[in-house]
Design goal:
With 229 residues, the protein is of the alpha/beta class. The chain has one domain: Purple Acid Phosphatase, chain A, domain 2 (4-Layer Sandwich), CATH 3.60.21. The protein is built from five helices and 15 strands. The chain has a six-stranded mixed β-sheet with strand order 6-7-10-11-13-12. It has a five-stranded mixed β-sheet with strand order 3-2-1-14-15, covered by helices on one side. The protein has a two-stranded antiparallel sheet with strand order 4-5.
């Protein structure tokens, strides 16, 4: 699975990739947004590359609203993945939007609210896997996308950027192969902030990253060269 993951800040260099390296980018399978990016930017990427978009919203609610004030449900023909599980080929892609509650002015959740969302998604994933087992289909791997990080993994001590503890429960319950998040800004977008927890590779996407999920390894880079492997 070859993924373009984006989050938080737009990138002129990525827009140039889309404009001038579209043939190589056709090797991508999907585009993933971990939140806080404008609708127009995501539509440019999805339309320019011609791949399905999977997205959740970040905490900056003004970027997640239509002109009438309603929360955006669809971007580039795709539905907000928050609290949902969607099958894509041999994968189940799940989403958790927003950040920790820090005043209620944005797209925010208290821990107990996110616990309910996580439990709901765990049930959905287990149901999909149960149905596959009944009809003897190959077990699907899971890719999780969130805006906020996990508690104590890439998070920060301030209330807004503290991660959710219940994300650890999701990892323990269904063991996703990959977890992509944003929200936490890093000074150098060319560097990879990666942690492996149990069997889950966790990546802070901030900016953009190309991710190649192979059978035995996961390659990550800001360069599109990894799409050749």
């Amino acid at each position: 699975m070859k993924i373009l993951a984006v989050s938080d800040v737009s990138s002129q260099s990525l827009e140039n990739y889309v404009a001038h390296s579209s043939k190589k980018l056709k090797k991508l399978d999907i585009i993933v947004s971990c939140g806080d990016l404008d609708k127009q930017y995501l539509e440019y990427l999805a339309d320019g590359i011609g791949r399905d978009l999977f997205f959740i919203h970040g905490n900056h609610v003004q970027r997640a609203k239509e002109e009438d004030g309603k929360i955006l449900r669809y971007i580039a023909g795709s539905e907000d993945l928050h609290g949902r599980a969607q099958v894509y080929n041999d994968y189940i892609i799940v989403g958790f939007g927003g950040s920790k509650w820090y005043g209620g002015k944005g797209y925010e959740y208290k821990e107990k609210e996110m616990v309910k969302v996580v439990k709901k998604v765990i049930r959905k994933v287990k149901w999909i896997r149960f149905k596959d087992k009944i009809i003897r289909r190959k077990k699907k791997e899971i890719i999780a996308i969130s805006h906020a990080p996990m508690y104590k993994i890439h998070d920060q001590p301030d209330v807004c950027h503290t991660g959710f503890k219940c994300f650890h429960d999701f990892v323990k319950a269904v063991s996703p192969v990959l977890w992509l998040h944003g929200h936490v800004h890093i000074p150098d977008t060319h560097k990879n902030q990666v942690t492996v927890l149990h069997n889950t590779t966790i990546l802070n996407v901030f900016g953009y990253k190309f991710v190649n999920v192979g059978r035995d390894s996961i390659d990550i880079s800001y360069k599109n060269d990894i799409l050749d492997s």
